[in-house]
Amino acid sequence: MTKPISDELIAEANARELVALEEDYTALGRKLARTGIDIDRVKDRIAGFSVAVPSWGAGRGGTRFAKFPIPGEPTNIHEKLEDCAVINQLSRLTPRVSPHFPWDKVSDYKALREEAADLGLGFDAVNSNTFQDQPGQAQTYATGSLSSTVEATRAQAVEHNIECIEIGRQLGSTDLTVWVGDGTNFPGQQDFARSLDRYLEAASEVYSALPDDWRMLLEHKMFEPAFYSTVINDWGSSILAAQELGPKAKCLVDLGHHAPNVNIEQIVARLHRFGKLGGFHFNDSKYGDDDLDSGSINPHQLFLVFNELVEAELNPREGFKPSYMIDQSHNVTDPIESMLSSAEAIGQCFAKALLVDRDALHAAQEANDTMMAFQALRRAYNVDVAPILAKARVEAGGAIDVLATYRASRWRDRKAQERKAVGLGAGIV
Ligand SMILES: [Mn+2]
């Protein structure tokens, strides 16, 4: 197995932190024991938790105005896998990569799967792309893809999704994530009902091509690139489409794809209630974007989402197997550092949700004791769970201080010497 960062460097960095970590972990263990919680059991749950990273997140993102590349950023799937391996080696939270096609196309997928495995990585959901045109493509997606009024365009979009399934089979994936940019910029531009009909008909052709153990994750988005309406605009349209397509179709919740201030944790509970919660794209937002780092703006919301997921575990519905992935745009940071920080934020919110005294919460809910129900959540949210995550990491060979260890490795500087420079460009990648 190829390890991008040397074990010696990680061990050296950890040696400086280990005594303090043991002290903090022991103290937190004593505090949690007073409320009947075994810290080692929480740590074991964290050790078993993982979140996928997107291949496209390994490069610097951008906006429609500009993109500012950094020296040493990856320019192909092979270099992206290397960077994803760094994130997983240090954090021990991100063992899978979610590829995007055609961006990550190669000629030999068996070899790509082996290359990833050698780096300690597997593949998560495959993502199709019918929101931009590719060189040599026969039909344009300028006015839509799966919902296009043009039959040949819909057929091309269906064919691309089926090709993604075939690639995914070779990579070991079992999920196809479908997000279409289809929508309108003007009132009257398209008929709301007919465009959804066309989408459903085309999506059902993709659905029919799913292998037995596969799922089709429908990702909704309220706006962008279409700014007046989108065909799969919210969780309502998403669950209706998933119900119509069949049991293998599930809804994917991207935290940034809602109107500002929407109660996303309630949507999570609703989707789960009907067996349609397929997974998450984690990010954060301040206004209406889907680009900021997970937990950087509203970590409390992330905690409340995980609180619903822990509740869902206690009341499982058919096929409850949510997939977790980071999906954010790293415009001003080293993407590796952003994903290390984000994976930590996501893991922390899961750990805090595990600390909620469920008996106390449920009893307070049944007794309509509003304040104590709230306090059951608040007590857990207020716990600093960092020592639990650090202990789980170090036991799995990861770094106690992921960012300091990453910087000590000088990974990006070294890659800047080896990798070809990225050209200037615009647009989200
Ligand atoms: Mn997304």
TrEMBL record:
<dbReference type="GO" id="GO:0008740">
    <property type="term" value="F:L-rhamnose isomerase activity"/>
</dbReference>
<keyword id="KW-0413">Isomerase</keyword>
<keyword id="KW-0464">Manganese</keyword>
<dbReference type="InterPro" id="IPR050337">
    <property type="entry name" value="L-rhamnose_isomerase"/>
</dbReference>
<keyword id="KW-0479">Metal-binding</keyword>
<dbReference type="InterPro" id="IPR036237">
    <property type="entry name" value="Xyl_isomerase-like_sf"/>
</dbReference>
<dbReference type="GO" id="GO:0046872">
    <property type="term" value="F:metal ion binding"/>
</dbReference>
<dbReference type="InterPro" id="IPR013451">
    <property type="entry name" value="L_rhamnose_iso"/>
</dbReference>
<dbReference type="Pfam" id="PF01261">
    <property type="entry name" value="AP_endonuc_2"/>
</dbReference>
<feature type="domain" description="Xylose isomerase-like TIM barrel">
    <location>
        <begin position="102"/>
        <end position="294"/>
    </location>
</feature>
<dbReference type="InterPro" id="IPR013022">
    <property type="entry name" value="Xyl_isomerase-like_TIM-brl"/>
</dbReference>
<protein>
    <submittedName>
        <fullName>L-rhamnose isomerase/sugar isomerase</fullName>
        <ecNumber>5.3.1.-</ecNumber>
        <ecNumber>5.3.1.14</ecNumber>
    </submittedName>
</protein>
